[in-house]
Design goal:
Elements (H helix, E strand, L loop, with lengths): L5 E6 L2 E6 L10 H15 L6 E6 L4 E3 L4 H4 L4 H19 L5 E5 L2 E3 L1 H8 L2 E5 L3 E3 L13 H9 L1 H9 L4 E2 H6 L5 E3 L1 H16 L3 H14 L4 H15 L3 H11 L10
Helix pairs in contact: 1-3, 4-5, 5-6, 9-10
Bound molecules: acetoacetyl-coenzyme A.
Pfam family, one: ECH_1
Organism: Megasphaera hexanoica
Family: Belongs to the enoyl-CoA hydratase/isomerase family.
Length: 260
C-alpha cells in the first residue's frame, strides 16, 4: 500500500498508523485523511491485526488539527462535505472491530483531538496538549468534537474547553479522564505496545465483542445496552475461545486462544 502522509506498519499483530506531515504539524489535509481511511479500511478487513496504535511523527505534534490553509477558502457546501467526510473517516476508527490505542505525542488540537477521542483510549506524552480551538477561527469542531468530548468528559467541561478555546495540558487531561495515562515521550510507544500485548493475550473474539458492547451501549439507553450485552455474552459460549479459556482455568494453565 502506498501512502503520502502516514506511515503504516503491521508487526506481530499490532498495526501502527503514524500521521506524518511534519512540516505542517501533522495537520489533516484531504490527502492525509484519505491515507488514514485507506489504512483503517485495510485493518477492518485484516485477520492479522489484533490491536491498532495511532500516533504522530516527531515529538511535538500528534495532529494540530484540520489543515487551516486548505480549508480557508471553502464555501459552506465544500466545508460541509469536508466535515462529513472527515467525521466519517474518524467514525470508521471508532467502529474498527480491533481495539485502538491513541498514543498522543504532542499537540492534539481540533481534528487531532477528534481522532484521539474516536480511539478506545488515550495515552499521552507529558508534553501533550489537547484542545478544540475552532471557535478562535470562527468555526466549530467539525470531525465529531462537540459530541465525543461531551461524552468523554461531561458537557460542562467540554463546553468550557470548546467555548473558551481553552487548551489543556496532559496533567489536566488525565485529571478530567480524557487520557488514561501520562508518560515521558520516550516511554509513550512502549507503554502503548505493552498494553496492546496485554490485550493480545486475551480471548480475541471476546475482546472485540466487549468493545462492541461498550460502544453500542453508549448509543442507547442502559436497558437496551444490557440486553445487547446479555445476547453477546451468550454468543461467547459458541466460541472455541470460551471452551479453551475456561478449560485452561480449570487445568491451571495459560489459555491458548485461536480467535475462533
Ligand atoms: N493547519 C495548517 N497548518 C498548520 C496547522 C493547521 N491546523 N497547525 C500548524 N500548521 C503549520 C504552521 O502554519 C506552520 O507552517 P509554516 O512553517 O509553513 O508556517 C507549521 O505547521 C508549524 O506550526 P507553528 O509554526 O505554528 O508551530 P508553533 O509551535 O509555533 O505552534 C501550534 C504550534 C500551537 C499547534 C500552532 O501551530 C497552532 O495553533 N495550530 C493551529 C491549531 C488549530 O487551530 N487547530 C484547529 C484546526 S480547525 C479543525 O481542526 C476543524 C475540525 O474540527 C475539523
Amino acid at each position: 500500500m502506498e501512502f503520502e502522509n502516514i506511515l503504516f506498519t503491521v508487526e506481530e499483530g499490532i498495526a501502527t498508523i503514524t500521521i506524518n506531515r511534519p512540516k505542517q504539524a501533522n495537520a489533516l489535509n484531504a490527502a492525509t485523511v484519505r491515507d488514514i481511511e485507506k489504512a483503517v479500511d485495510y485493518i477492518a478487513g485484516s485477520k492479522d491485526v489484533q490491536v491498532v496504535i495511532i500516533t504522530g511523527a516527531g515529538d511535538k505534534f500528534f495532529v494540530a488539527g484540520a489543515d487551516i490553509k486548505e480549508m480557508a477558502d471553502y464555501n459552506p457546501k465544500q466545508a460541509g462535505d469536508w466535515g462529513t467526510y472527515g467525521a466519517g473517516v474518524i467514525t470508521k476508527i471508532e467502529r474498527l472491530p480491533q481495539p485502538v490505542i491513541c498514543a498522543v505525542n504532542g499537540y492534539a488540537l481540533g481534528g487531532g483531538c477528534e481522532i484521539s477521542m474516536a480511539c478506545d483510549f488515550r495515552y499521552a506524552s507529558d508534553n501533550a496538549v489537547f484542545g478544540q480551538p475552532e471557535v478562535g477561527l470562527g468555526i466549530i469542531p467539525g470531525f465529531g468534537g462537540t459530541q465525543r468530548l461531551a461524552r468523554l468528559v461531561g458537557p460542562g467541561m467540554a463546553k468550557e474547553i470548546i467555548l473558551s478555546n481553552q487548551n489543556i495540558d496532559s496533567a489536566e487531561a488525565l485529571r478530567i479522564g480524557l487520557v488514561n495515562k501520562v508518560v515521558p515521550q520516550a516511554e509513550l510507544m512502549p507503554a502503548a505496545i505493552k498494553t496492546a500485548k496485554k490485550i493480545m493475550k486475551q480471548g480475541p473474539v471476546a475482546v472485540q465483542i466487549a468493545k462492541k458492547a461498550i460502544n453500542n451501549g453508549l448509543q442507547c439507553d442502559i436497558i437496551t445496552g444490557i440486553q445487547f450485552e446479555s445476547n453477546v455474552f451468550g454468543l461467547c459460549f459458541a466460541t472455541k475461545d470460551q471452551k479453551e479459556g475456561m478449560k485452561a482455568f480449570m487445568e491451571k494453565r495459560k489459555a491458548d486462544f485461536k480467535g475462533e
